[in-house]
Amino acid sequence: MRFLAVLCLLALAACGEPAQPPAPAASPAPAQGAAPSPTASEVVLGSTKNLPDWLLVARTADAGYVHFNQRSIRRNGDGTADIWVEIRHGNPQLREAEDEKTRTAIHFRTERLQYRFNCVESRFVILKRQFMGGQDAVAAEDTMNPELWRGVPATGIARVVMPVACRGR
After folding, report:
1. Residue 157 is part of a domain; what is its CATH number?
2. 18-73 residue pLDDT tens
3. Is residue 31 part of a domain?
């Protein structure tokens, strides 16, 4: 039952706002709150505006959760799509960074990644990676190399999130 609910939310979020064809001039307007009548080849879903921004898409091996932000999806004219993904790890994680003067260690349970998918070639790049501290404030951020494109693997987060970002392209 839980799996079916997740699939419904995923399908609803992937569809975006519903298409509403203009009503014919002679047709009366639908009652307030009523859904428009779909044509024979069209399915009209309710709006996603009342759903939370972050929707569950997968579980991690350490009993954590993977969410995507439905409002962050941007489909670009060049066949790419951007999406933010949040990973809530079941176990604490460690990020270490070092430069000439300092060494920093951050313990975190939540990280956010901004993916860009080439929907036609099934490739992706991670643009940003954020490590979240208390109250989901960004404790550290890495900006990645936007030229480091990789093929989408057979399993993993990129494989699960790409159809959502690309809308089935």
Report:
1. 2.40.128.710
2. 434 444 444 344 444 444 455 554 544 456 678 899 999 999 999 999 999 999 99
3. no
